[in-house]
Protein: Pentacotripeptide-repeat region of PRORP domain-containing protein
Organism: Oryza brachyantha
Amino acid sequence: MQVQKAQYIKSPRPSYKLLRHNGSAIPFPAPPPSTTAAGRPPHMAAQHGGSGNGNGNPRLHRLSRVLASSDQPPPPAAALHAHLVRAHAATPSAVVRSLLNRAIRRLSKPHPRAALRLLLLMPRLPVSPDHFSLPFALNAAASLQLLPLGASLHALALRLALLPGRLPVANALVDLYAKCNDLPAAHAALADIKAPDAVSFNSLLCAHARLASVPDAETLFAAMPSRTQVSWNAMVVVYVNAGDVSSARRMFDQMPTRDSTSWSVLIVGYCKCGSMRNAREVFDGMPAKNLVAWTAMINGYAQSGLPEASFAMFREMEAAGIEPDAATMVGVISAASQIGSMELAGWVGTYVDKKRIERNEKVLTALVDMHAKCGNVDEALSAFREIAQPDAYPYTALISGLAAHGHAKLALQVFERMQAQSVWPDPITFVGVLTACSHAGLVDKGLEHWEAMVKYYGMARRADHYACVVDMLGRAGRLQEAFEMVQTMPMGPHPGALGALLSACKTHGNVEIAEVVANKLFELEPRNTGNYIMLSSIYAEKEQWEEAERIRSLMKMKLPFKQPGSSWVENRQSERGRFPVRS
């Protein structure tokens, strides 16, 4: 089977070339005809006391100590090869082979690329891997998604007669193909196992769960001879990823036992679909709440537009003695950005520094968004500069925040840099750009971007884009153009665009257009008091007192009670509370 390298390799190509392997069969020597249980010929085991640690060779002993540690990667390949060649000259092959196989096993998880470099040095000595180390090599290739190399290891396992008899090798092969998303090959590898166990099935089941392949996962789950906790959890995951939370709950209820992953996955599922009441119910019933569950709830409340509940959950987590991580703080930062308080944003930023939270791209992007929305431009720019290669999300957050807080020209400069860096904007980016043009009075520039959305970027204009342009035209006094745009919107009149035009009518004293726009707003938003007050004010400024009183009477008739709003305030001790704000 020929494999297209670019189709499967997700790691950068230079890193793959570092392995110095072209995907062809690895020329390992055939295994010796007779070996002991330790993997060495009988006379070698006797000669070296069965230790295999290189005690008889000082050079190999030093190298053994280096490779025995998984804390640090081994020396560069060229230097390592030179050491091995010199050591091999005075040491039997079995000892070198044992050393490298142990090193591969130890390095495969913390340093998978280093483990594979060791594997690819073995043919040059020449020694070969054993049935203990080859599964670890396959795991290393799977973690890096190096499918061509994994296919070569598959061929090597067949040549060394490790398949289909060695179950750990066969299971690692299924896992390799599953993690590289070559599901037909994974199914074929599973079918070749004469007596598969639950581990054999779980790797493939987890792949179907990751891809939300519900029918395939259900078929595989039904065919399993035995099931582990991983199997049950994978089925909950597949339903959650497919958006079928009801089936996920049914599977959860059928579980013979549950671990922390079982509870956390179901909580994540409810949070994804916005069912925070159900998520809280499951969370409260969780015997031992882990960080994943706390993080899911904090992020779920934030994503559902409930920042107060998100912060309340965060305070509960702190009281329980659970330390947050980067994923947790993304939710907390998002909640702070929705509240919009500069003081609270400053507290959150200080908390991130104090707790030494990893400042990865997601955290930095969230910080940019929070500080920009709260008007702290310097902090937003500082966080943005920390992102090595910002994509559209941090650019958009920065542009939108700058545009909303009186830094329109700076927002447009950031957009120009975004274009220079060949970062493709999204529709939300253009909301920020058009807002910046509106606030800066750059009508012609704004209309250029308006046209570029369709002609250059191929984007469909949304209602919020129309609202920005209507606001831009209205601020410039071009009310007739704005009115015509509102009337020709493909999605029909929108409250955002109509509200912007009504505000412009008040600024420029245009009663005729204001009456038409306000009456439409009364239909779309009959309980929005701002529209009634705005039209009444327009009449009053023109000294049309009877009309002004008529609109106020209409408002009182339709809205006999006016609910107070609410706001958030923080004191110096960072205690947050709600208080009513009368308007």
User: Anything to note?
Assistant: The chain has a mean pLDDT of 82. The chain has 33 helices and two strands.
